[in-house]
Amino acid sequence: MPTLSSIPVLTGNDRTNLTAVPEGLLLRGRHRNITIPAEAVARVRAEGTSVAVELRARIGATPTVYRIEGVDGARAVAFAEGVNSLIEPEEQEEQEEEVDGISLVVSDTRKTRWTLGADRRLKWFVLAILAVTVALAVFGGLTQGAVYPVITVFFAPIIGACFAGSMQELTQSLHARRLRRIGVKEFARPANLPGSYVYQDSTRLNHALIRLNAGPYVELVYDPADPADWVTVRPGFMERLSRAAGVFTFLCGIGGLALLQLLLSDL
């Protein structure tokens, strides 16, 4: 019988990899890790250059399948055979009607869809600020002399950083308000590590979160279209501080613009 150390690690497309660990299987991606306990696995199938992990499901229910694409075919076969050989057939038959595999899986999402979109918007905003700064510096240098680009290059990035930070904080606040309005209410309960909690979405998948000094549970709402995206039911201190920081940096940006205009008008 193979051991865990003899089962290969699979590396697929988009930096994903699938590893056999003592607890079961660990599927790691760029923005999410999925821990699949051994008792949740029905079987693993090698399908050419992909591997499918099929979870156990109650009779009549459609089993959930996690898949990794773009792996080496020979390693896929070795991985599937190795993991399947470690699953006890007798135990699987006994628990087949009782185990709901998806309810044992834990998803740890580092970046939600909204976060990825916010990062893209911030990147394009920063690029736009740099482009405007360069354009103003070049145009001012040609028409107003050498002092104009020096002042522009010094002040414009600072002003742009104020507006970028304000945009990030205030859009996050608006997103949190939207979630509280349309989100699904749930309670996250303590997990096995201090400060870690898990909550279950409508598909029975568990989602991990970190919340220090939160007490026996965390009352939250999550986005029904992206259950990994959550906020607490009531704004916490850090969220209110972030909102105040967004307003403050926006006012700093306005003040910086006024100061830059005043300096340039004196040239």
Task: Write up this protein.
By secondary structure, the protein is of the alpha+beta class. The chain has helices at residues 73-86, 89-95, 113-144, 147-182, 237-265, and strands at 10-11, 17-21, 24-28, 32-37, 41-47, 50-55, 65-69, 106-109, 184-190, 196-200, 206-210, 218-223, 226-232. 44% of the residues lie in helices and 26% in strands. The strands form 2 sheets. A 10-stranded mixed sheet has the order 1-2-3-4-8-11-10-9-12-13.
Topology record:
Layout: E1 10-11, E2 17-21, E3 24-28, E4 32-37, E5 41-47, E6 50-55, E7 65-69, H1 73-86, H2 89-95, E8 106-109, H3 113-144, H4 147-182, E9 184-190, E10 196-200, E11 206-210, E12 218-223, E13 226-232, H5 237-265
Parallel strand pairs: 8-11
Antiparallel strand pairs: 1-2, 2-3, 3-4, 4-8, 5-6, 6-7, 9-10, 9-12, 10-11, 12-13
Helix pairs in contact: 3-4, 4-5
Main sheet: strand order: 1-2-3-4-8-11-10-9-12-13
Distance between the termini: 82 Å
Structural class: alpha+beta
Overall body shape: elongated
Number of strands: 13
Main beta sheet, described? 10 strands, mixed
Fraction of helical residues? 40-55%
Rg calc:
26 Å
